[in-house]
């Protein structure tokens, strides 16, 4: 059966939303990541936890910064611009990851702001980012997003188009850190994570941005270097 028609139902999330302070949730999630890495005979330090703070206000983010969390994810450039400059003045070693779909006309603002861009998925965006990096003299890490479940409504380049997109990104001198995916909702994610890991290996890429609140441990056992966790940390988004 092809990967885009798996029949495995997704298991229920094993950590229900809870009322504990966000710093306790952070410690629990970090411990779960470390345990999953250890089981997979990986180094826990090789997995970056990105706290996805989209929709959450500065007041919800501050306790995590105080607790030592430094990698954060936002979906929208405008929201990140509104929230992060002030926080970064106080916590200058913060790394900001833009994880949402990016319009080419926002490339310059994205490059000026972000330390990593996770949804590079088409030629026009590669070109816009290359130009923006030149203009801003800043080179955030880039993850190429793959539409791993071949879903028409999702961003990401097709598996078939990835080699060409990667070649373009490399020849435009983008710092390509690896691949990113968002597997189909409601299905067991493991086959998709395994496929993304294989494609990355085939292309000599070491970074793997995969795994969210419901499946980050699975992602870590299958090689994720960056997990993007929102609701399990901050609670449900409005
Ligand atoms: C919102 C978002 C996440 C975090 O999702 P949760 O299920 O809340 O952990 C991760 N990646 C992307 C691309 C997102 O848009």
UniProtKB/TrEMBL annotation:
Tree of life domain: Bacteria
Pfam families in the record: Ala_racemase_N (PF01168)
Residue list for modification N6-(pyridoxal phosphate)lysine: 54
InterPro entries for the chain: Ala_racemase_N, PLP-binding_barrel, PyrdxlP_homeostasis
Sorted UniProt keywords: Pyridoxal phosphate
SUPFAM superfamilies in alphabetical order: PLP-binding barrel
Domain Alanine racemase N-terminal: 26-237
Lipid metabolism among keywords: no
PANTHER family, per the entry: PROLINE SYNTHETASE CO-TRANSCRIBED BACTERIAL HOMOLOG PROTEIN, PYRIDOXAL PHOSPHATE HOMEOSTASIS PROTEIN
Family (UniProt): Belongs to the pyridoxal phosphate-binding protein YggS/PROSC family.
Primary role: Pyridoxal 5'-phosphate (PLP)-binding protein, which is involved in PLP homeostasis.
Name of the protein described by the UniProt record: Pyridoxal phosphate homeostasis protein
